[in-house]
Amino acid sequence: MDLIFALYVPTLCLYLWAGIALSKAFFASQKQASRLPHYLLYAATVGHLALIFFVNLNNQSEQLSLTQVAALLAWLVTVTMIGANAYIRNLVFLPVVSLFSALFISLQMFVPASTGIHIDMSIGLISHIILSLFAFGVLSISFLYALQLAYINYQLKHKQISLANNQLPPLLSVEHILTKLMIIGTFLLVIALISGFLFIPNMFADGYAHKTILSSLGFLVYVLALMLHHFSGLKARTLVSFNLIGVSLLTLAYFGSRFVREIIL
Questions:
Q1: Alpha-helix residue ranges (DSSP H) falling in 111-235
Q2: Does residue 93 contact residue 148 with C-beta atoms inside 8 Å?
Q3: Could you report the per-residue pLDDT of 99-135, keeping only the tens digit for each?
Q4: Which of 4, 32, 71, 195 could form a disulfide with 25, with the two C-beta atoms 3.0–4.6 Å apart?
C-alpha cells in the first residue's frame, strides 16, 4: 500500500500541474512554445498506468471494482486525447482530461470498492463488460469533442478571431472527428448490447433491467443524432445536447446502479 500511495501522490500532482499549465497556455494572449505542460501530462499517464497495475496486483479479491475500471477508462480517454493532439493541435480539453484522470485515480484510492468484473465470469460476459466500457469511453470522448465544437462555434460567431486563429483547431476537423467518434461509439454500444443478450440469460432480470433499458435508450439517442446530422445537419448546441443526454444515460446505466434503484425507482 505504501508503494501505491507513493505512486499516487506524484501522479496526482503531475495531472494537476499539467492541467493548470495547459489551461494557462490555452488562455494566454500569445501562443506558448513551451512543451513542458505536455511532458507533464505524458509523465502523469505513465504514473497512472503504473498505479493501475500495482492496485490490481495488490487486489486481494477476485474482482475488479468499478473504481478500478473507471480509473482504467480515464487513462484510455486521456491517452486517446493525447494521440488526437498529434493531428489537431491545442485541443481545448487536454486540461479537462488531466483533471478528469486526477479525479478518477483519487476515487480509485479512497472510495470503497464496489462490484465489478469477477475473474470467474465467462469469457462472453467479460467481453460484454469490456465492450460496454470501451463504448462508454469513446462516447465520453465524443462528448468532449461536442463541447469543443460548440466552443469554437461560439468564438467564431462572436468574432473572437485572434483566439480562434491562434488557439483553436479547425471547426470542420473537430466536427469530422466528432461524427466518426459517435459512429464508432454507437457501433461498439450495439455490439455490447447484442453480446449482453447472447451471454446474459435474462437482460431484463433484477439487477440488469435498468442497465439494459438505459443503455438501449442511449443507443437510440446516438442513432437519432447521427441520422439527423447526416440528413439535415445539426447545430453545435444540438450536438452537445444529444451527446450530453447519451453519455448521461450510459453513466447511469454503468455506474449509477444504486442511484437508479434508490432514487429513480
A1: 123-157, 161-167, 171-199, 209-231
A2: yes
A3: 888 888 887 777 655 545 554 566 777 788 778 888 8
A4: 32
